[in-house]
Each structure stands twice: as C-alpha cells, then as structure tokens.
Amino acid sequence: MAQEYDLVVLGGGTGGYVAAIRASKLGLKTAIVEKRELGGTCLHRGCIPSKALLRSAEVFRQTKEADRFGVTTEAPTLNFAKVQERKQSVVDTLHKGVQGLMKKGKIDVYEGFGRILGPSIFSPTAGTISVEMNNGEENEMLIPKNVLVATGSSPKSLPGLEIDGEYVMTSDEALFMDELPESIVIVGGGVIGIEWASMLADFGVKVTVLEYLPHILPTEDQDISREMMKQMKSKGVEVVTNAKVLPDSLEKNNGISIKAEVEGETVSYQASRMLVSVGRSANVTNIGLENTDIQVENGFIQTNKFYQTKESHIYAIGDVIGGMQLAHVASHEGIIAVEHMADGSPHPMDPEQVPTCIYSNPEVASLGLTESAAKEKGFDIKVGKFPFKAIGKALVYGETEGFVKIIADKKTDDLLGVHMVGPHVTDMISEAGLAKVLDATPWEIAESIHPHPTLAEAIGEAAMAVDGNQIHG
Ligand SMILES: Cc1cc2nc3c(=O)[nH]c(=O)nc-3n(C[C@H](O)[C@H](O)[C@H](O)COP(=O)(O)OP(=O)(O)OC[C@H]3O[C@@H](n4cnc5c(N)ncnc54)[C@H](O)[C@@H]3O)c2cc1C
Fold first, then answer.
1. Alpha helices in 216-308 (DSSP H)
2. Choosing a second label site near 154 at 20 to 30 A (CA), which of 201, 280, 454, 472?
C-alpha cells in the first residue's frame, strides 16, 4: 500500500539527511530514500574519509619532523592498513550517528533506488515516488506533498581515461587503496587533486600534478594559488600547469604512462598509478525527471533561490544543482528548501558568504571575491595582507608559511573577500563568515580583540593592514 508523506527526500547525503532532520523538527512527516548509505559522498567517499587520511599523513610528517621540536624518535614507519582501518572507524562512527538521528527524528528510511513517477491524485505537482528496494522486495510507492531531490554527484573522467579502479582511479577508488603506490600522476590540480597531492606527498609518494589551466586551484585568489604552487613544490610535488593530457596516449603496464602537451611540446609521464580529479557530474540519470517539467542545464537541475524546480512542489539541492559543490552548501540549501516548503520565510543563501576550505598542508580557506573578481566587478579596492611568519603562535607551532589577505571596498569599507593559506586556516575562516553576515568592516574585525598568542591574530593584523595600520609588520 502506498505511504503518504509531507516530504520525501531522494538521496540521504549531507544535503538530504540534514533537510530531513529540519523537516521533522518543523513537524513534517518525512521519508528518505537512499540507494547506498546514509551520509552520502561526504561521509563515505568525500570530506570525512579524505580528512581522516590527511590527518594520518599530517601525523606521519610531523613525526618525521619531531627532531626540530627537540623530540628524538626512531624514523617512523607507516602501517597503511592501520591508516585505512582508522579512517573506516571514523566513517562508521559517524554513519551510526546519522542512522540514530533518523530514528530520533522519526524519519522513515527506504533503502533503495527512488524514481519520480507521473503526478499523483494526492499531489499532482510532486508526483509519486517509486522505490526499487535493495532487498529485492516489491517496489514501495510513496505519495508525498513535496519532494526534495538531493541525489548528489559522481566523479567524472576524461574520454579515453577509463577508470579501472586499479591503475586509473578517481577519489572513490583511491580512498580504498590497500597500499600506497610508489608514485602517482594526478590529472587535475583543483581542490580534490591538491588535497590528494599534499596527502600522498606527506606519506612519501612521488607525486606529479598535471593541470590544464595556467594555475592550480584556479578558482582561488591568485596570491593563494601562487603560494600553494610554491608549497607543493617545496614538498617535492612536481606541478605542471598548462598541461593538456592526451588520453589516447595512456598505456598500462605494471604502472601507467601518459603524455601531455606542455607549452608546445609532448612530454611523457610515468607512475605506478593515476588519479583523475577533473570534476563531478550531477546524478540526474534514471530518477524520473522525464516525467516532470524539471529543467536540466549543463547537466544540473535548475531551481529558484528557494530551490524550487519548475514543478513548485519538487525542490532540488546540493551537488545535483551544481554551483559550489560543498557539503555545508548542500545542507544549508536543504534547510532553506524545507523551511520554504513549510511556509517559513528563509533567507536565500548569498554565495559570497560561503566559506570554502582545502585541507592540504598548508590549508587554504576563503570567502567572498578574489582580488581579480572584485576588480572585474568594478570595485575600487584596498588590500591588507599579513604573513603568518610574523605571528607568535605560528612560530610556536613551527608552521609559518602563508598569510591572510583581506580585500575591502575603498569607498564604503565593505568587506569583499578574505583569503587565507597557512596553519589551521580552515578553522579560522568562520570569523570572516560571521563578519560578512554581520556586514562588518575591516575596522570592526580589528576592533574585536584577538587573544594572544593565537593564529587568528593574523586576521586582526590583516584587517588593520587594509588601512596600513598593522602593528607587527
Ligand atoms: C574526495 C572528496 C572530498 C570532499 N571534501 C569535502 C570537504 O572537505 N568539504 C566539503 O564541504 N565538501 C567536500 N566534498 C564535497 C561533498 O562531498 C559534496 O558537496 C556533498 O557530499 C554533497 O552533498 P549532497 O547531499 O548534495 O550529495 P551526496 O553526498 O552525493 O549524496 C547523494 C546521495 O543520494 C543517493 N542517491 C543518488 N541517487 C539516488 C536515487 N535515485 N535513489 C536513492 N538514493 C540516491 C546517493 O547514494 C548519495 O548517498 C568532497 C567531495 C569529494 C569527492
């Protein structure tokens, strides 16, 4: 018999399960359909497992460097099986947590593949959802008043670079490697490529990054991508920019060999493995969009600012709508969508208030406009930049690379962008996020007292530097 719901969420990733919890708190009778595991990409194949591996790489690197802190150890060795075990236990703990939250919120979870069928009598615009159950039982039919499509995304490859899971991997396969390769070619120097380059180099793998564009991390402020280029090179990572990979040249023979056109020359690269990190495509296939008026452009579902599709009772959020493909964006969008369908009046999300983080060593975190984007938009800008090497806590930590850069509007003093590279900046960017939401000027950021000694003093100094008033530089 068909079950009726106020909301059925298609996909139990970060966006979907957070939206379901908010819906249940708002009193909506809610169900989630999930074909794999609750928690989705972020928990099982993204944010959490990659950060657990990065943490092991950090401990390994720091142990090797212990001598400079006066701690003498034997040369550390790596037990990669144990690294993987620890990663999996972090994931499993959080997975249980999400399952518990579903029970607590009285959210029904259907384990299977969901598809939107035609309109139902109960809700002509939302449509019935059929669930092909993983356990082989008869399809479940769900009749919702609202649907939230949160089916996420999957890794892309380049035509010719077929993923075999052994020699040629995406991050999905790389996360489950049994042992570390001796060397690796990473195709794509974006966020995922650089996190992996940093992690594998810290584990002692010989890494080559091939990036098509003139800069790695091309969406970051140019000062940041230049600094990261320098930092990756100092780790021993070979970074080749302006490199057009020639997929047809791929050869596999106890390792891989691939050619790339680099500044007019064809160069050959050899390694034990290849990681392809060239972006992610939305999961829109086979979910019944053809039974609706939902529009898909460039592969992504189109919505308005409250995440309604062309069918007003079908909303879509997260990676499946493109934009900033980040877990905290997916969950924030999910909350806005659910509040909107429950007749609340949520604030639309402002992309310039969204922090983005890269968990490499050193870390990168940013928010708002880059210097070049601010200039392109016609702002007359002033810039304050302050290096970590002048911050006491950075010296105490022994991590002095990087800086904080703040961009403001000369005319109004409005904060336009904050960009950081250095130790623990992913934990520090939230100060900039709050400042942006509260419309704080750099002067107000500097007025808020930064305790000493902390790394966050670099934010206060950079804010003062916007008007040339920094103290320690
Ligand atoms: C290696 C890597 C590292 C990352 N690191 C970070 C990070 O540090 N910070 C960050 O913010 N973001 C990070 N991301 C991005 C982040 O994982 C995504 O932005 C986030 O998971 C998007 O959430 P979502 O809910 O839209 O989709 P997903 O998390 O992809 O969830 C979608 C869910 O829908 C399910 N599904 C799909 N189709 C159906 C169907 N028809 N029926 C039932 N279920 C279905 C899928 O099985 C999946 O569980 C990373 C991504 C990767 C790949």
1. 222-234
2. 201
Whether ligand 1 lies within 6 angstroms of the CB of 95 is answered as no
For the domain made up of 354-465, the CATH class stated in words is alpha beta
57: Cβ below 6 Å to ligand 1?
no
Percent of residues, the chain, with pLDDT higher than 70? 98
Model pTM above 0.70: yes
Catalytic residue among 95, 215, 452, 472: 452
Query: How far is the C-alpha of 369 from the C-alpha of 338, rounded, in Å?
Result: 29
| CATH topology for the 157-278 domain | FAD/NAD(P)-binding domain (3.50.50)
Report whether pLDDT(351) > 90. Answer: yes
| CATH match for 3-154+281-341 among 3.30.70.141, 3.40.50.2300, 2.70.40.10, 3.50.50.60 | 3.50.50.60
Which element (helix H / strand E) includes 464? helix 457-465
Residue 52 Cα to ligand 1 middle (Å): 17
CA of 47 to the centre of ligand 1 (A): 9
Q: Residue 120: pLDDT band by 50, 70, 90 thresholds?
A: low
